[in-house]
Specification:
By secondary structure, the protein is of the alpha/beta class. Helices cover 46% and strands 18% of the residues. The protein has 14 helices and 12 strands. Strand 3, helix 3 and strand 4 form a beta-alpha-beta unit. The longest helix has 26 residues. The relative contact order is 0.14.
Length: 411
């Protein structure tokens, strides 16, 4: 099941639990705006090349729309629509005053030079600048983009609208970025893990963790888990996987990755088949890579007791059912990886106010939001006698539905 179908299924289940009016349900499902643009740029060798860019703005009932921009070969309308819808529910679960959006360009950034990536970013911004803005739609980095990409968007947008720091988040610190933003999603994953384990009388210390994906989210999650005494026994990235039953020295692995660009040949662990990583014996499995990695083919073999969804949509609905029947506790993506958008909100607030927070305040506020989010989800689970995933979806959908009705939907 693709990401859009899975997200829509979860939404409809939540709508049924909440007994939403059918017309309101349909209204909440349909995106506010879908943008598709052609981005033609000259390559460094003088040839012209065209890429297709997308921006889906799903809902703005609770505030400006918010969502990342990704550069990836698999970017397509269905994926972008699914992620935009997820952002609507995610920002509502986090209880920050945003709606949901997502964007991307179907390209392989590894095949583009820095100058070509800049040209592509600027052309994309030129095509969508009238549809984004401080109080309209606030993009952020995603897969294949970073703070430099946001700096280019900020600069290009400002040519049309004047200096506008709050138009994007995830910016460099020198251009209004927030302290703590780089680690935010991974730190949020760890705060979410703490909240879940505490429900079962457990803590991160001495628990065995497996982390799929060692990019920004996975590496920060591993680092923070290691600092708290958790035992990270296996990790992977696109170059391979490594395991050590006694626990990987994460600082040493980070140094190895920085010097070699990959996890291969790390002396502090043994290589393993990346496909086996998801079914490695552990207490906590944290997928932090692409969506759909847990499916009906491998779900029955998963040995983890807890799954924390650091990635977007890592668990297919069929796998969800299999894992639930096995008694595996799954903390859903729309809560577990919401640390990034929460600190993006903090950055936006700082830009609007023109006042920089110190990193301690950012981290303390993030922890407060993550704790409250888990408490709110648990309350919905108790009210509706449902799973954590449906607790999160009913929480998010109900908040957006309430905002929509209060604004006068159907009047």
């Amino acid at each position: 099941m693709n990401a859009l179908a899975a997200t829509t299924r979860n939404f409809r289940n939540a709508a049924r639990i909440l007994r939403l009016d059918s017309k309101l349900e349909q209204s909440l499902l349909i995106p506010l705006r879908e943008i598709k643009v052609e981005c033609t740029i000259p390559k460094d060798d003088g040839t012209l090349v065209s890429y297709v860019g997308f921006r889906v703005q799903h809902d703005n009932a609770r505030g400006p729309m918010k969502g990342g921009i990704r550069f990836h070969p698999q970017v397509d309308p269905d994926e972008v629509s699914a992620l935009a819808q997820l952002m609507t529910w995610k920002t509502a679960v986090a209880d920050i005053p945003y709606g949901g959006a997502k964007g991307g360009i179907g390209c392989d950034p590894a095949e583009l030079t820095c100058r070509e990536r800049e040209r592509l970013t600027r052309v994309f911004t030129q095509k969508i600048h009238d549809c984004i803005g401080n109080h309209t739609d606030v993009p952020a980095p995603d897969m294949g983009t970073n703070s430099q990409t946001m700096a280019w968007i900020l600069d290009e947008y400002s040519k049309f609208h004047g200096h506008s720091l709050a138009v994007v988040t995830g910016k460099p610190l020198e251009l209004g970025g927030s302290l703590g933003r780089e680690a935010a999603t991974g730190r949020g994953v760890v705060f979410a893990t703490e909240a879940l384990l505490a429900e079962y009388g457990k803590s991160i210390s001495n628990m065995k963790f497996v982390i799929q994906g060692f990019g920004n989210v996975g590496s920060w999650t591993a680092r923070l888990v290691h600092e708290q005494g958790g035992k990270v026994i296996a990790v992977s990235d696109i170059t391979g996987a490594v395991k050590n039953p006694n626990g990987i020295d994460i600082p040493a692995l980070l140094k190895h990755q920085e010097s070699t660009g990959c996890l291969k040949n790390f002396p502090g662990g043994d290589p393993m088949d990346p496909n086996e990583l998801l079914v490695e014996d552990c207490d906590v499995l944290i997928p932090c890579a692409l969506g759909g990695v847990l499916d009906r083919e491998n779900a029955a073999d998963v040995k983890a007791k807890f799954i924390i969804e650091g990635a977007n949509h890592p668990t297919d609905p069929e796998a969800d059912e299999i894992l639930s029947q096995k008694g595996v506790i799954i903390l859903p993506d729309i809560y577990a990886n919401s640390g990034g958008v929460t600190v993006s909100y903090f950055e936006w607030v700082q830009n609007i106010q023109g006042f920089l927070w110190d990193e301690e305040r950012v981290n303390n506020e993030l922890q407060r939001y993550m704790k409250k989010g888990f408490k709110d989800i648990k309350a919905m689970c108790q009210t509706h006698d449902c799973s954590l995933r449906m607790g999160a979806f009913t929480l998010g959908v109900n908040r957006v539905a309430r905002a929509t009705l209060l604004r006068g939907w159907g009047a």
